[in-house]
Amino acid sequence: MQRSIATVSMSGTLIEKLTAIQAAGFDGIEIFENDLLYFDGSPADVRRIAADLGLEITLFQPFRDFEGVSGERLARNLERAKRKFDLMHELGTNRILVCSSASPDTIRDDALIADQLGALALAAQQAGVYAGYEALAWGRHVNSYRHAWRLVDAVNHPNLGLVLDSFHTLAIGDSVDEIAAIPGERIAFVQIADAPKLAMDVLEWSRHYRCFPGQGDFDLAGFTARVVEAGYTGPLSLEIFNDGFRAAPTATTAADGYRSLLLLEEQTRGAMKAAQAGGEARHAGGDAAVALFEPPAAPAHVGFQFLEFAVDDTARAHLADWLGKLGFRQTGRHRSKDVELFQHGDASIVLNAEADSFASAFFQQHGLSLCASAFRVNDARLAFQRAAGFGYAPFSGRVGPNERVLPAVQAPDGSLNYFVDETPDEPTLFEADFVLADRSANEAARGPIAGIDHVCLSLPAASLDTWVLFLRTAFGFEPEPGQLVPDPYGLVRSRALRSRDGSVRVALNASVDRHTAVAEALHTYRGSGLNHVAFHTADIFRAIPHFVARGLPLLKIPRNYYDDLAARYALPDQTIDALYENNILYDRDAQGGEFFHAYTELLDQRFSLEIVERRGGYDGYGAANAAVRLAAQAQQRRHAAR
Amino acid sequence: MQRSIATVSMSGTLIEKLTAIQAAGFDGIEIFENDLLYFDGSPADVRRIAADLGLEITLFQPFRDFEGVSGERLARNLERAKRKFDLMHELGTNRILVCSSASPDTIRDDALIADQLGALALAAQQAGVYAGYEALAWGRHVNSYRHAWRLVDAVNHPNLGLVLDSFHTLAIGDSVDEIAAIPGERIAFVQIADAPKLAMDVLEWSRHYRCFPGQGDFDLAGFTARVVEAGYTGPLSLEIFNDGFRAAPTATTAADGYRSLLLLEEQTRGAMKAAQAGGEARHAGGDAAVALFEPPAAPAHVGFQFLEFAVDDTARAHLADWLGKLGFRQTGRHRSKDVELFQHGDASIVLNAEADSFASAFFQQHGLSLCASAFRVNDARLAFQRAAGFGYAPFSGRVGPNERVLPAVQAPDGSLNYFVDETPDEPTLFEADFVLADRSANEAARGPIAGIDHVCLSLPAASLDTWVLFLRTAFGFEPEPGQLVPDPYGLVRSRALRSRDGSVRVALNASVDRHTAVAEALHTYRGSGLNHVAFHTADIFRAIPHFVARGLPLLKIPRNYYDDLAARYALPDQTIDALYENNILYDRDAQGGEFFHAYTELLDQRFSLEIVERRGGYDGYGAANAAVRLAAQAQQRRHAAR
């Protein structure tokens, strides 16, 4: 399908927007009127610039408050429309969006409105253009696509069609089922927007909180599947009013928008197949009349292969010391590079101090930091092809003789994401690349850590949605609802994603404010960085004393927290005391699942290590305890600053 | 009345909060439970620290989801309450807030709830504490103070009272009238919060958008007047959940909170007088049982006396050149300082280059900037006393022989605000302080500018509310509704205030994002600064060509803007052409009032001068044109950056 985006969806001047839109891969744009008004050049200039970039102007918009008016007002509105039709000729587009009137004095009379839309269709015909009528969710009289369609159908004129917008339909909880029955050629245009589910006025919600498909909570695939089933073959066009996007880097926003459309096409294909399989397809004939993006399926994940830190000698010593206190043992040394492997249970940590490498460049920019994550998947080549197909930059580093070539893409912060698979009867990755220590000694020394539970990253506020899209598109991860967490010095937005099998979990933290722990860590990282790595254990009450005895410095949790736990939950006094003594935080879900977790102090003022135990199917991350942890970390930072 | 604030209302650790609250002048605090949980010390430590600071702990809160439960759950909840009562003894407070249950499984049975609240009252009595029952606006069964009062009244126990919270009452549009009929001694506690009127879910609204009295849209004086009429003599306590305050400097927030209570007390006094005058007072006896703050009344303003810029020689030459192009003439030189006076119509501009002065220090910090504003008032001494009474720092500079001593306070950005009055038969301020040029030459040279229309300031995002409170408390200005304006690189919040007579208007701009014109100007100012000064004229179509002929560089507005004006308004083509040729922006209000305004280019990449003409009672600031202006300024900045 033609992939289009409205200029209002991103920041910058009109020229900056067009350039970024073209670079992202789109072939169409909607010109939002304000962008034209503020442009210091003629509409013909815009036409020429867009043509030079290979961008078709798919739509001009919006035209407001046309219908349901007095006869005198109708004449004025037709005059206004004709001026815009003239402008459209200069601009080189023949489609205009007319949104249902939101004026308080709209006359609520369908027959009158149909007459007036008929007059508009006639004027459009005379000007050689097409008008598309869209129901705004807050339209005064017309606020559903079904109502708008009845009017458009009643007018029955070739120069008047229906405009569908996923937000206006899904925000009011309208059913999408009847879309498939609308003749595709009568649908003038389709606009796509996602949004988080928010309990607020629909107009404010629409103007400030729309987001790209995959970043919000709407079933856009279901919506788009019905559009395709209707036989619509025009553009799918993103129209996103988002306060964050208004201030974010233009090129990144455009690139994310394009990826989000690709993801939507893949999901739409799935939704259509599901409908066909269920015998629900509204349209005979099976395959869609349009081509939809079809990447390799998201890989089945089987867990973290390793986490790789960029270090220098000092940082390596520091981190290796803490890993040792956690019971990790150095189990390998890279065959050709200054890289060491530490393992405990199924958790593998790589410390990379190789000079003149990606890791050393990363270290120079960010200091001690997570420079790569490797994921074990069923088919690494296909997983890589999928990620690259969504436009994430491939990466290849130096490879020594007989060492494994790992396909990788760069994450939004420039760190690497490797895909690793294993072939039976061939050396494993670690066997191929590392000189390994004696395995039996390792097995004998098994400690309480079973593996990596999750990784949490600290991100700049503007890049949270970019990361959500990265993990959804490239990895096929599923997002969980967002959380807002108080730090003593501001708020932190948090959102977790996981692989379908739950074996890989990534939590994202982005600070709303400038002086939270998350924001200050970002500052030391000069960019994004690790917030914490969580290791899981089957017995946290055994593990923690073990680690503390070895000297691991735990984040101290105030006694008052435990007194409140005692009031909230019917926990035995000895459990409360054991939690307090070990600085273990506690959470319980509605089904009685329990979460026990403890944090180390901040390492290098940047990140911490977490030990978690899940019982009874607890599936979250202890969000209820984030505030007490952030307050304790602030306390630690204040002590360190003295 | 006792002035109290909840610890949740500001950022920081508990100790930082207590210190700031004491310094601001409060004598009471509510301990919000989370602040205690995160505190690394015992409740007894908090008691001691608060006592050392002279702060009474007026309340411990919140206790949630107590009532409307099964018998088994009631026993657990009573156990939970008893633990909190123990904690209150350690903390040294005897009052706890119990908010109405928001749990979905609340049993909706008033008789049962009254029984259970009775059990709570008994437990409180046994523990020697008092429980206050508050209706949350989103309470599952009990969500109005009237309902809560019926229950409290039914229990009829001395250890159970009613808690009133202005937000919960006013957010649901409830009438405050019945408050005055509640016996004052049955009101356990009164919480105060203002909020902007927003169309959103009341819980989200309450948790993120509360603000101090005077910063929002609620009639808090009406609410508080009824509370005082009821005979309540306990604390008025601010409880503000505000995302901005969570990240703002703790001391500033606390100081603003204290001022906002003083303002509320003044307004409450007014509301009570008004009710008495109208015969509406619910309580016989006239004067309130409590003392309410009574500052000198807000001054009657009669306009801007002068605006004073901090300059060096280069900046003076630059600004004097532009003022000359606007038809200003140098009309005076200060008797003892390196200060010059420029005038045109009623507009007076002072350029201050005096070495080793406040102005030179201001220039060193901020560069070419507005360092002082002088307001003509009916009584300068009383105006100053009022401002100082609200806690704004007085300022005195050096004064030469026979020069006038001007009372002044420092604004939130450190600039000065002078109050000036005139005594008949005595020299005017300018006559006293300046050697003035021949007045007749001045009169003969009168140009098209009549005076100063308004001043617009650029502020850091966190200080917009601080400024609103400054202008309301110290000056008695009235705020207008806020606006959100798009810049090409983000959003700008804008709010205007004016003196009651409309002779002084100040608009405040604060950038939500980091790369708007407003944010970048703040960066060059290193703090707050002037956005623009608007001068009014009676004939903008005569004025602009006059200024342009003298070489004033106007901000260029794109032709497309005018083509859209032509489509939107039935303006004659020659008017459109004249607007375009003169780069004049146009707005029209619902009553047909018209606004014509043009901007200069940015001076020193910081601020601009605006020429405005108001016709037919137009009373706004052309907010509809802010976006095109910001886009044109962005264009100019891009050109300058090349």
TrEMBL record, chains A, B:
It comes from the Bacteria. Mg(2+) binds at H454, H532, E610. PROSITE patterns: VOC. The keyword rRNA-binding does not apply. Its EC number is 4.2.1.118. The keyword Metal-binding applies. Pathway: Aromatic compound metabolism; 3,4-dihydroxybenzoate biosynthesis. Keywords: Lyase, Metal-binding. HAMAP family: DSD. Catalyzes the conversion of 3-dehydroshikimate to protocatechuate (3,4-dihydroxybenzoate), a common intermediate of quinate and shikimate degradation pathways. Belongs to the bacterial two-domain DSD family. This is 3-dehydroshikimate dehydratase. It comes from Paraburkholderia kururiensis.
